[in-house]
Design brief:
single chain, mainly alpha, Growth Hormone, Chain: A, globular
């Protein structure tokens, strides 16, 4: 994933569309999130678990074929030998990058209940099966897809900071509202909103981070980004699982995730003026001619 994130900048021909390319990269991921859970749910309902894994294995053929057809014209940019320590030092010293990585980590923790406990809602609360689970996950994926489409059509990175703050608050409220809801007709739009809000955050952070980071540190910093996004999910799931076990219910996990998201959005709003000032200085230097 870090290689894929950094590789996007290598295969586009015009840096003016960098943010659009990054959003389209997210669009492909979230497009699969819409189709994948629905297909898996119906496959599981009609066949069995091994069939789901078999289809998943075959799907890698498309990814391998795509990579084999990509032939970048020039990958001779100078790469400084260095080290992850340099990337860590950059993130630690440059406040906008540090806040972006932390934002992704917090968002990943807030997303964890949706990834971990959705089968519980499908079976025990909405009295459904694998097909309903696919529908619930598909609703979240549809929101993510809508957010990625919105970002893919933006012309610049201006205003992304305020949208990240708004998404933290809206996504947190949707998570808390989902916790004790027992109506499927309300659950689907709440999942759509939360899925869109969370992907708006992580994709906007991706766009901003890649627009700010020095070229020779891009791959290493994107590795930190990926670790914050994907790496925090299992840790969040472990923590929420322990909490649900102690409290005897999965519902409080969604409330805690919502409060955490809203609270962090407030902290980010307070820090935003200073972060914008620092980021704009770098963006002006990196602005394509």
């Amino acid at each position: 994933m870090p290689s894929r994130q950094a590789f996007v900048t290598e295969i586009i021909h015009d840096r003016k569309v960098l943010s659009n390319a990054i959003a389209l990269n997210s669009l492909t991921f979230n497009g699969a999130r819409v189709v994948g859970p629905a297909v898996a749910g119906f496959t599981l309902a009609i066949f069995n678990e091994p069939a789901c894994f078999a289809i998943n294995a075959v799907s890698y053929v498309a990814a391998i074929y795509t990579l084999l057809t990509i032939h970048p014209d020039n990958l001779s940019r100078e790469r400084k030998a260095g080290s992850m320590m340099e990337a860590l030092q950059y993130v630690r010293q440059f406040a906008p990058a540090r806040w972006l990585v932390i934002t992704v980590a917090i968002t990943s923790i807030c997303v964890a209940p949706f990834m971990t406990f959705m089968p519980v809602y499908a079976k025990d609360i909405f009295n459904g099966g694998p097909d309903l689970l696919g529908t619930l996950l598909g609703a979240s994926g549809a929101g993510a897809l809508a957010a990625a489409l919105y970002l893919a059509n933006r012309k610049s990175v201006a205003g992304l900071g305020s949208r990240i703050i708004l998404a933290c608050i809206v996504g947190g409220v949707a998570s808390a509202a989902f916790a004790y809801n027992q109506l499927l007709t309300l659950a689907l739009p709440l999942l759509f909103i939360s899925g869109g809000a969370f992907i708006l955050i992580v994709t906007s952070c991706n766009i901003l981070l890649q627009s700010l980071v020095p070229e020779h540190l891009r791959g290493r910093v994107m590795a930190l980004y990926t670790m914050s996004f994907i790496g925090m999910l299992p840790l969040g799931s472990l923590a929420y699982g322990g909490l649900a076990h102690m409290m005897g219910s999965v519902k409080p996990a969604f409330v805690i995730a919502g409060v955490l998201s809203v609270g962090y959005g407030y902290l980010l709003m307070k820090a935003m003026p200073e972060l914008l000032s620092l980021a704009q200085q770098v963006l002006r230097k990196n602005e394509p001619s």
